[in-house]
Amino acid sequence: MAAHGKFVFRVCTGILGRNASLLKPHTASASLQTMKIAGRQFCSSNTGQTEFDVVIVGGGIVGLAAARELLLRHPQLKLAVLEKEKELASHQSGHNSGVIHSGIYYTPGSLKARLCVEGLELAYKYCDDNNIPYKKCGKLIVAVDQEEIPRLEKLYERGQQNGVKGLRLVGAEEIREMEPHCRGVKALDSPNTGIVDWGEVAKSYGSNFQQNGGQVFTEFEVADFKTTKESQGDNAEGLKYPVTIVGQNKQTVRARYVLSCGGLYSDRLAEKSGCSSVPKIVGFRGDYLLLKPEKCHLVKGNIYPVPNPAFPFLGVHFTPRMDGSMWLGPNAVLAFKREGYKLLDFNLKDTVDALGFK
């Protein structure tokens, strides 16, 4: 997933809350109202159930994918997802460039390389199976001078080692045939690269999770994790569900295990659970320009530069969108609010956290 809405040095933390001793039972309800998101209905527990085998904190694409997969593999488990916003996929999952990458860039043999190559095929299959629109519009990585050609050829070799399908090097004439308004001396053609609305994919995961018996609680912002210290009389429920998750509005749910997929707040959730807050989230916002609608026909697919090894980003590129628009970017500027998507968004705590981290 191309998460260019914000660049972060830590995307998601998985924390398992291990069994402690008994915790006094909580009776506070965590029920929330039913809602519809993009044609899919999400609702909280209307049965009053607040005890689960596994609770996933975070209703973004990582949390929802993890929840769905856990339930598919272990349908006997009681699972719930907690999301602090009114809607699922409100942040990273809905603020990215929407590219389905093919696995060219990653070190051969690495987990990133394997998962990206396999993930592309699985993403297309999931979209086909669930009627989610996508476009397999391809990508050209274009060398504009002779100095960039060795790096481009190295990318080609890396992609071949990673098992990326359909990769080929093309010359200047073929670049013009594929992208009439693009000029370069040589390019790497990745025909299986595509685009999709990852927010829509995430919401589909959520819908699928609920259809299979999982529960989604929105507007449940985690304030604290509490674990049972010792047995309370004859009540064994605390031993069975030793972790209590407390919301900002005093909602509570209890769980045997907790999986935290908190995105831009994963470090703070880790700290609340008793783990280290390092590595720290340091957010960089990516700004894009929008091509004028009457000029969008000038670009057919993704056009990327050859990455500069001096920088940790892929460089400014042309990215077509599912709505027909064309993005140009991104840059990378320090974000003064973790979930701030506008130029002047500011949060004092987030800013101090970022600037104070060595």
TrEMBL record:
**Does S-adenosyl-L-methionine appear among the keywords?**
no
Residue ranges that the Swiss-Prot or TrEMBL entry lists as coiled coil: none
GO MF terms, alphabetically ordered: (S)-2-hydroxyglutarate dehydrogenase activity
- The EC category is oxidoreductase
Q: Which UniProt keywords apply?
A: FAD, Flavoprotein, Oxidoreductase
UniProt record similarity statement? Belongs to the L2HGDH family.
The entry's protein name is L-2-hydroxyglutarate dehydrogenase, mitochondrial
User: Which organism was this protein described from?
Assistant: Branchiostoma lanceolatum
